[in-house]
Amino acid sequence: MIKVGDKLPAGTLQEFIEVEGEGCSLGPNAFEVDKLTAGKTIALFALPGAFTPTCSAQHVPGFVKNADAFKAAGVDEIWCVAVNDAFVMGAWGRDQKTAGKVRMMADGSAAFAQATGLTLDLTARGMGLRSQRYSMLVVDGKVKTLNVEAPGKFEVSNAETLLAQAQSA
Q: Residue 55 catalytic?
């Protein structure tokens, strides 16, 4: 499992782009994790899936609500990572009003989740291999803080906890 001090694993995440620009076309675009994190501070949170109850009612809204406070604390971008395709993440982003606040990053085949060692097997619930719920502060590609939830919990990966860590970094 990834830990504080480790570099994020190399890999690709997909993001559904609503407005064409800066070399990005409309629709799904692939981004290399190492290139996106270079020289930046990223507040990254991951969760089991789009449109699921805790994720939609609490996890994403907390980061949307605190987006300005994260920027004030020196965070360049906020990423939500889930094992869903870019189309689903794009639709969920529209539903959650994340535009300009949280980048909705798709890990469609769970490759990023597997590379971090933070997977959650929800096959018995019809959801297959997913990501555990966690948050981390990433500085220039390295994990500075990591908050991994116990199964079925939502206590340490929330926006307020990661914001406090970013403010004291």
A: yes
Domain count for the chain: 1
Asked whether residue 6 is assigned to any structural domain, the reply reads no
What per-residue confidence (pLDDT) applies to 24?
66
* 55 pLDDT tier (thresholds 50, 70, 90): confident
Is 105 inside any structural domain? yes
The single residue of 13, 46, 55, 102 carrying the catalytic annotation is 55
124 burial (CB, 10 Å; 0-12 / 13-18 / 19+) is exposed
Q: Is the pTM of this model over 0.85?
A: yes
**CATH code of 80's domain:** 3.40.30.10
Domain hosting residue 32, numbered range: 12-167
Show the CA angle centred on residue 134, arms to residues 18 and 24, nearest 5°: 20
